[in-house]
Amino acid sequence: MSAYNRAELVPVARGTIMTKLPHSQQTDTAISGRFARFPRTAALIVLALPAVAGAHHSFAGFYYPDRTIEIEGVVTEVSWFNPHGRMRVEVTDESGASDIWDVETGSVSVLRTRGVDPDLVQVGDRIRLAGDAAIRNDTGIYGRQLLLADGREILLSIGVAPRWTDAGTGELIAPAFDEQTAAAARESAVGVFRVWGTVLDDPAAFPMYKGGYPLTEAGRATLAQWDAASAALNDCTLKAMPYIMITPYPIEFIRDGDDIVIRMEEDDAVRRIHMGAASPPGEPSFLGFSTGSWDGDALVVETTHMQAEIFSPDGVRQSEDIRVVERFMPSADGERMDYRITIDDPVTFAEPFDLTRYFVWRPDLTVSAYDCVDGSTASPPL
């Protein structure tokens, strides 16, 4: 059984794995002249500023954050899941020799919030990709931008800007607003009780964890044992509280009797906020025990009884003594919700400190089922 209580969610269609087309169907004759052929051995390596690779799932030890490469080729396999999408692309050089490249991308949930239909990329399509070079695989890449043969660009990851197009030209694929869903949401939204999303490209909204924590000697000793190349923050590993609050995916506040439930798309996590008298459990849990109160329109939540789990994507680990106080502060017009969490863990941190972020109202979104499939980072098991 999962460490989380699962909500009853409407299932979404699972990604599909497509098989390789016959070579005769992978010719260049239907491709416009938009792409230049890249040599197999060069793949156009350029320096770039470090991207937000480790902000949500850890890619340290798997990809070079300061080495951007481009490849062009034909898609032979594609699979869209959480926490990462995966593709294989056949790259052919001028001599006719070819390599199969393993491609990892951002999650299907990120693509959905950006209005990207996974069917836009099909087996047999010629595409261009830019992203981080893999450390352990000479033909591996974490794809951040993708250029379709018709000139439209897809942003595959968080914290990236268009590479080949300008957002004002209309060639960058943008979210499609679902007016029917939004109309229903507007009728029921009150205060915090609505679906909230994340502005993925604003550092004030994401990521929330930025390092520089006041570690104790014990906290530093635990951090020194962290293996950045481990799978502890990759694949379908569940996130504990408070780390789950880094989520870039939709969350929703719902009344459940006297209590409040926070449904989260990531991990299908469900947090119960006890608004009346309630006794804490005898044992700690992933999401802990939360009690809430109102301060005007702000929801104040105190959480205790959390397990000693990963605290942040850089490997800091919390103790079972951790206690957090959250403030969810919606604006008067309901368009934005500021969030502040105070961390108090005397074993790990020398003093309490705050982390902040904000959410935005997304009436066009719903909290969907989290379609997660395990797979080894930098070596997609398609």
How are the elements arranged and paired?
Elements: E1 45-47, E2 63-79, E3 86-92, E4 98-104, H1 108-113, E5 126-134, E6 140-147, E7 153-155, H2 179-188, E8 195-197, H3 217-224, E9 251-256, E10 259-264, E11 270-274, E12 289-295, E13 298-304, E14 323-330, E15 336-344, E16 353-361
Parallel strand pairs: 4-6, 11-12
Antiparallel strand pairs: 1-2, 2-3, 2-5, 3-4, 5-6, 6-7, 8-9, 8-16, 9-10, 10-11, 12-13, 13-14, 14-15, 15-16
Oligomerization category of the chains in this entry: single chain
Order of helices and strands: EEEEHEEEHEHEEEEEEEE
Terminal residue distance: 26 Å
Q: Which strand order does the major sheet show?
A: 8-9-10-11-12-13-14-15-16
Instruction: Count every helix, treating DSSP H or I runs of 4 or more residues as helices.
Output: 3
Keywords:
16 strands; OB fold (Dihydrolipoamide Acetyltransferase, E2P); five-stranded mixed β-barrel; 2 domains; globular; 382 residues; mainly beta; nine-stranded mixed beta barrel; single chain
Notes on the protein architecture:
The protein is mainly beta and 382 residues long. The chain has 2 domains: 23-169, OB fold (Dihydrolipoamide Acetyltransferase, E2P); 179-361, no CATH class. The protein contains 3 helices and 16 strands. The chain has a 9-stranded mixed beta barrel. Strand 6 and strand 7 form a beta hairpin. It is globular, with a radius of gyration of 22 Å.
